[in-house]
Amino acid sequence: NHPGHEDTLRFHLAKLGLLDLADYLVWIPYESFNDVQVLGKGGFSTVYKAWLDSVDSRGFAVLEKADIGWKVGFDGEMKAHFALKEVNLKLIQEVVLSTYLAFCGVLSTIGLIGLSQGPSGHYLMIMDYAEEGSLEKRCMNNPPATHWGEIFDMARDMADRLYLLHRYGLVHKDLHPGNVVFRTRTYAARTGLFARLIDVGLSSVVESSQGDDGIYGRLPYLPIEVFDRQPYTSASDVYCFGTLMWQLVVGIPPNGTAASAVAERTDRMREEMIPGAPEVYLDLLRDCWQTDPARRPTMADILWRLYGMGKGSAVAEETTKWIEGRRAAHKRMMHLDSEESTDFEFFEMATQNLRSQFHPYKTFKVPASQLKANLSDVQDDLRGKKHLRVLRHGGLRARVCAQDGRIRVRGSSRLQGSLPG
């Protein structure tokens, strides 16, 4: 899809001290992009949206199911949208982490394609574009769901993404509805609504670069234990996932913080239980919101329980009226306090003001590597193990299995090459 410019890619990666990533990324000149627009601004970078013309008259290459394994096909689309995220040079290891996630079969995240350089000189990470937006925007812009099956399906998909992260030894550490996005297409030519997680591990990069006490994240979505100076673990992600499950139904952020909710509520839950909701759903919420991390279910348990909920039934009128009341109250509160915001900059500032209440977390939750400025450790970890990987070959990102340091096309016994390095 994006052939050429290999020498330019290597030149810029060498400047960044990331030359070992050359076999995993592509370079796309900035002038190739059309209609570049600001998509969002955070505390550390700006994200843009743009589109590219296909270099092939058949459209963009995708993977299609074959009789055995996969085959290359074309989607017939003559242009495709991408997200361009500015690279903060102080947080350069985010590029390494994003590459690791994109090419080690962690299919929970938005894919990293390559790099570019904007007119201001900022490097840009080129990523797949989540055309359906974030969970946060979907909650704000859409009316409440009318059937529990719709809620169960979205919760299962989000749980599956987080389960895969945990399975690979990763912890998100900043899980909130702005960091859950949706796509309607994948590289495997599948269609539907697919959840993906973004900014995975960015909080670890931020905390490591700052080198002082503090934790990065949105205060209303932080788990209770960080207010008690306990470590952030996979069980902390589970607490945050419970909050996502609640917001998926109600459509608004939770009130206050976990610390204030636990102090004020007799049941020590993060939020009110949803009246009229299926008891199995409420039971799962309660378990995710246990104040003791050791008593929370794992994401594997959560996924199993969500699939056990079946297709669900229509949302009760009692539930709909309660949701409408909560949404109206939230709207009035936002109107009264027009300075309150839910963007990154507000919560980053608020977290810094409360920094003395937290302690630093400086370890990347990535197996077999501490995400140095190269991928040699990652490559060593992959050798001799079976992982789903994505390689750039002839401009196409093709999914393959790596075993014993060699490459096999998934579903085929034909050797295709060797691992780089």
From TrEMBL:
UniProt GO molecular function: ATP binding; protein kinase activity
Keywords assigned: Kinase, Transferase
UniProt xrefs under InterPro entries: Kinase-like_dom_sf, Prot_kinase_dom, Ser-Thr/Tyr_kinase_cat_dom, Ser_Thr_protein_kinase
GO CC list: cytoplasm
Keyword Kinase: yes
Gene3D superfamilies given in the database record: Transferase(Phosphotransferase) domain 1
Biological process (GO), any one: signal transduction
Location of the Protein kinase domain: 33-308
Record's protein name: Kinase-like domain-containing protein
